[in-house]
Design a protein that fits this description.
The complex is a heterodimer. By secondary structure, chain A is mainly beta. Helices cover 11% and strands 45% of the residues of chain A. The two termini of chain A are 26 Å apart. Chain B is 7% helix and 58% strand. Classes of the chains: A mainly beta, B mainly beta.
Chain lengths: 263, 782
Amino acid sequence: MIHYFKYLFLSIGLIAFSSCEKVIDLNLDSQDPALVIEGTVGNLTSDQIVKISRSVSIGGKNEFPGVSGATVTVSDDQGRIYNYTEQSPGVYITRRLLGTPGRTYFLKVTFEGKEYRASSAMPFPVHIDSLGITSTTIFSDERKSLQLQYQDPAGVKNCYRFILTVNGVKSKTIFIYNDDFNDGNTVNRELFDTDIDMESGDNAGLEIQCIDPVLYRYWQGLDQNRNRGGASTTPANPVSNITNGALGYFSAHTQQMESVTIP
Amino acid sequence: MNRKVKFTFFKRSPIWLFCFCFLVSQTAKAQQQRSTVSGIIKDASTGETLIGASVRLIEIDKAASSNSYGFYSLSAPNGEYSLQISYIGYQTLTKKISLAGKLTLNLELASSNQLQEVVISSKSSNELMNSPQMGLEKLNMEGVKNIPVLLGERDVLKTIQLLPGIKSAGEGNSGFYVRGGSSDHNLILLDEANVYNASHLLGFFSTFNSDAIKDVAVYKGGMPAQYGGRLASVLDIKMNDGNSKEYTAEGGIGLISSRLKVEGPLIKDKGSFMLSGRRTYADMFLKLSSDTVLNGSALYFYDVNAKANYEINDRNTMYLSGYFGQDKLGLNKTFYFNWGNTTATLRWNHIFNSKIFSNTSLIYSDYNYAIENLQSGNDFRVTSIIRDWNLKQDFQYFTTGHTLRFGLNANHHRIEPGKISSSQTSEVNERTISTRNGLELAAYISDEWRVSDVVSLNYGLRLSSFALLGPGTIKSYDQDGNTIASRSYDKSQIIKHYFYPEPRFAINYRLAEQSALKASVTRNTQNLHLLSNSSASLPTDLWIMSSNNVKPQVADQAALGYYLNFNKDKFEFSAEVYYKNMRNQIDYKNAANLRANENVEAELLFGKGRAYGIELFLKKKYGDFNGWIGYTLSRTERSFDGIDNGTYFPAKQDRTHDLSLVAIYKAGKRWTLSGTFVYNTGNAVSFPHGKYQLEDRTEYYYGERNRDRMPDYHRLDLGATLEGKPGKRFTSSWTFGLYNAYNRHNAYTIEFEDVPGDATRTQAVQTALFGIIPSVTWNFKL
């Protein structure tokens, strides 16, 4: 529904007015680097990763230094503790943790005397029943997009995140949904990314995650910062489930991998 | 707790009332053998009542002005006088009167066709110098015609934004900010009816069709006690009554819209009607497209203003007026989005006697929208309504030295935030967000008192009460937004009640013949709040009422002003300073969900605000060359516990400098040239100062709220009007406009992204909405 809004905005703009874009120089001062923690627990493999890095200033290069020397552990609500080892600078892994739906996981990162904690409950999985391609014509331009169907379980709050990959390149669009409007129904979702043109023969890969509602809100916050079309909210750092001011998130989610060749 | 406050107040309030009665009776006693002249002032050619015309007894320099219905009343010792009636754009009329006993004198003023050459006596600005009212601006609808606007669509909302202290919410947005207020802090009235969404086409145009408008007054401070319910300003718009002398039609054909107005007598000199309509046709261009989605799409609005009045007798007049507007956006048989306002006002003016004027109004106002998705499988329809039934009783009592206003107001609000319906086969579930009912009750009294030749006062009190009424289930929430308690209420049961006394005080001190000092202190409260966490105003923005979770917003404002007329009244200068303190302001939690959310109140943050500034205003009122310069230096800040630990941050609309220049030049008999220039400091925004990586994406790291600025905004608009040859029954004119004449690319949004082709760096991309836009409109009148 939201992207219809955008077309309408766009059509007003195109018909009556001349809008124009240009790159500008804002000269923004830099901000003290912040610790960024990105940790996930999935249910497909027993390899789990926690990445720790730092933010850089906006004018700098997109090179994000890994943070070495942190102590990383994840425990679950059964009292099991998994110790992570640093595989490369800033990348901490364990090879023994296969996530179990319904269980809550607790992250603890200790670095330079500070402790960062987070918890996330892995929801029960919802499987994608079918995957297809739809095409939409906007301004005489035919666009193909991935469409998927699933049965939302009734009576529980379900949140979904989809990660789209086309020919190995990850879409930058954040696809998150919940069941506020369609609890318990067969749901169709169209994954529409204006930046990716899908052609016949392309390979589209899809990771389907069932996420914790807390993480849904986190992704929502992140997505609002990048909303285009002039109807954006005041941008701010999304509320992280990690304590002590760290950026990033810790998410325990279920996973399902699918792929399809564009006809 | 509340009960106690109320009780102590009522204990005190009779003292107030007593003071009023005492003052009035004392003054009445002292003046015996006085008589009153009263009546209605009208335009001689159309029979339209004239609002704010000045009436003066020359010999004793006593003056009054006509009220919103053209009624005036003046009392003086018995004797012979010259009564002078003047009004901007009209020939001044002087009449000999003999005052001995009650005198009813209805007057008609002939319009002076050449507005710029009106000769107005040096006392015409009497009202500015004598009235304690400050922060009030009135628009002359004839003047508005000459001001260039986007696409030639005359727009009072855009024009008032050229006044100091009133700031535009931005391009493509009809909203405005007054003295640090938010856009929902403005009370927008069309013939007394509240207009909830004053914009068309997502904000590019306003709902007010200039053809149908007679009078526009904006109060940005010193709000008189008869107005209430909003914090920052009152925009009081009155529709034309309709020509009671003859039938006329006028209209115009523009680039994106056409308009037509017809008016005439129902019964000559007894009643008249006015009907005015407008429709845009931006979607005609869509029809030309070969794209099947586009050429089957709708994108237009229309609106209709209608009014009729009937003078039953000298003492009773009835008015019925209404507005109906609709916006329609639609994508070929898949998606529709319609919204619109409907208002209706039924009024009864009753003149009890030469001193007491009464107006009774029954007002209906409705704003609704509907979104419809027809795609099979996930079809749905969302509807939302906000509806008011409002009963108002106002009295004006004119007595020597005093004008008393008092009245009562009961306004019932009903908000249906969203009803989602869908077909059997749709994946969307049917759901209704709970309806809310509320009752606003207000009583007010104020006295404008001419204490002496140099001092006048306007003091008053508005008692405002709000009750959130059942039925409904009301929840309360903890800090994190989790429901901690829930309680159900029956129909009409009071869920939550608030009571606020709102004192209003203003004083005028006349320094010299042509200069005055004024000061005012006012309190305003607001019980309906607009939730919008998006930078663009959308028709779907949600209105909510005060409740157990949401307290009424309160603003206290103090202002001081200096006013000067000089150069034979050709120039007017004013300087006003203000300080405003606001409580219970609303902001949003991060990633707040305001859409179809039963627990929307849990998404809100409550805090405070402050705003202060100085407004300088220099007008050249008459002459072939006229116009004004307005400049505002101001600061607007907000503070919320949930944002940056409660430190004050600049509100989005905090613009340090704001300058507007308006110039109109009458070049010869038929040409009028005009230009406006605006400059303002860019809005306060939050830019990222850092970045980090999640998965493979670059995410942006934000610091404190709104510490950055958009680039400065400036724009020059030019206009020219060519009037047809005068003196004919059928006249026509051409209006040419050039919006953004030097094609400045003002920043509408600034987005950050990886440099295309070089993912190691970040760039900021600015989008401008409008470049240079010419327009032409042909207007006719017969």
